[in-house]
């Protein structure tokens, strides 16, 4: 059907026997129209197969029905074999789909032009709000968008003194629980493969590890990775070289824990007989590692859904909680 053959709002109004303004209010969701008039308009919409012009509707409603999901990572990182990003995107997508909203996925790298591009788009009226996740360092983007009037919610604690709301888990407490589990099972030389120290999750999980070790009057043994399998394998090799007698390791992500398991096998160490391993995330592959991985379960998909729900509420003009922390759980399997 060509554009000129499509039914117009005028056709709908004529068929329903109402003014164009009344038909427009019904189509755009106004509740100020009498129910029997609204029914007439909706029946005309169905009979004619009328589809609102989204661009014109946006001018009337000042809404785009789209939410930006901004990943502070490179494209190759987001679309790597690490399922963490897919789980976040799936959760956000499910919630937006349920609300009949569109997801606009955007990548923002470390460069200034990259931030400027995303900021121009988000503040240019193309989206109703923005979700930002996987932030590094004192990322200025959440605060800049918020000051520009864009509803913003972050997945993860911000490293700046920002008032932008966020959804997360208590990473420090969860890590402390995981390390106490290793200590309670009799492990004495417990190391950690920490996450990136320019991300709140990496910083807080290392704090939790150090706190548990201090509680037990034990020396901290630390290597730092970047949440990837490769970095976990390299860090594990470094830890074994630094302290060949270590008998446990807490890795700040399941991907790094998987890399550590591979490295331990290559060095002839048995898990858990020689070295116990605990991860963080409870990704699906954690059940299939060799041996199955003890890990901290965080509800990644639910976090995605929750942060999407929060930004939709904010975009609708509602007040929301500045901080929402979802629960974690230690899942015990054969690796520890």
Question: What does this entry show, briefly?
Answer:
The protein is 45% helix and 16% strand.
Helices, strands, pairings?
Layout: H1 9-16, H2 20-27, H3 35-48, H4 54-61, E1 66-71, H5 75-78, H6 83-98, E2 102-107, H7 112-123, E3 129-133, H8 141-147, E4 152-155, E5 166-169, H9 171-184, E6 190-194, H10 200-215, E7 221-224, H11 229-242, E8 248-251, H12 254-266, E9 276-281, E10 294-297, H13 300-315, E11 323-326, E12 329-331
Parallel strand pairs: 1-2, 1-3, 3-4, 4-5, 5-11, 6-7, 6-8, 8-9, 9-10
Antiparallel strand pairs: 10-12
Helix pairs in contact: 1-2, 1-3, 6-13, 9-10, 11-12
Average pLDDT number: 91
**What is the number of helical segments per DSSP (H or I, 4+ residues)?**
13
Structure summary, number of beta strands: 12
- Broad shape: elongated
CATH topology of the largest domain: Rossmann fold
Q: Structural class of the helices, strands and pairings?
A: alpha/beta
* Strand line-up of the largest beta sheet: 2-1-3-4-5-11
The named CATH superfamily of the largest domain: Response regulator
Q: How far is the N terminus from the C terminus?
A: 63 Å
Number of domains: 3
Radius of gyration: 25 Å
The level-1 CATH class of the largest domain: Alpha Beta
Order of helices and strands: HHHHEHHEHEHEEHEHEHEHEEHEE
> Major beta sheet, specifics?
6 strands, parallel
Unreliable stretches? none
CATH architecture of the largest domain: 3-Layer(aba) Sandwich
Q: Report the sheet-strand fraction.
A: 15-25%
What is the helix fraction of residues, given as a range?
A: 40-55%
């Amino acid at each position: 059907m060509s554009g000129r053959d499509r039914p117009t709002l005028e056709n709908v109004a004529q068929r329903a026997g109402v003014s164009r303004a009344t038909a427009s209010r019904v189509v755009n969701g106004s509740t100020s129209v009498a129910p029997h008039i609204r029914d007439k308009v909706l029946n005309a919409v169905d009979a004619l197969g009328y589809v609102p012009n989204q661009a014109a509707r946006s001018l009337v409603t000042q809404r785009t029905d789209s939410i930006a999901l901004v990943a502070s990572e490179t494209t190759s990182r987001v679309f790597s074999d690490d399922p963490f990003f897919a789980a976040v995107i799936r959760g956000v997508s499910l919630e937006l789909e349920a609300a009949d909203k569109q997801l606009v996925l955007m990548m923002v790298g470390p460069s200034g032009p990259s931030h400027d591009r995303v900021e121009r788009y988000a503040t240019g009226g193309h989206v109703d709000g923005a979700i930002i996740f996987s932030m590094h360092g004192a990322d200025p983007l959440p605060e800049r968008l918020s000051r520009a009037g864009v509803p913003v919610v972050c997945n993860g604690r911000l490293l700046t003194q920002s008032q932008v709301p966020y959804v997360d888990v208590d990473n420090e407490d969860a890590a402390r629980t995981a390390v106490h589990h290793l200590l309670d099972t009799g492990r004495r030389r417990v190391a950690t493969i920490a996450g990136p120290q320019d991300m709140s999750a990496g910083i807080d999980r290392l704090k939790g590890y150090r706190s548990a070790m201090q509680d037990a009057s034990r020396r901290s043994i630390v290597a730092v990775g970047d949440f990837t399998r490769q970095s976990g394998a390299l860090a594990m090799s470094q830890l074994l070289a630094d302290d060949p007698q270590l008998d446990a390791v807490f890795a700040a992500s399941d991907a790094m824990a998987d890399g550590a398991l591979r490295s331990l096998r290559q060095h002839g160490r048995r898990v858990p007989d020689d070295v116990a391993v605990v991860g963080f995330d409870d990704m699906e592959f954690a059940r299939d590692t060799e041996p199955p991985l003890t890990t901290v379960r965080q509800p990644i998909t639910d976090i995605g859904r929750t942060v999407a729900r929060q930004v939709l509420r904010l975009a609708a003009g509602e007040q929301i909680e500045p901080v929402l922390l979802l629960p974690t759980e230690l899942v015990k399997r054969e690796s520890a």
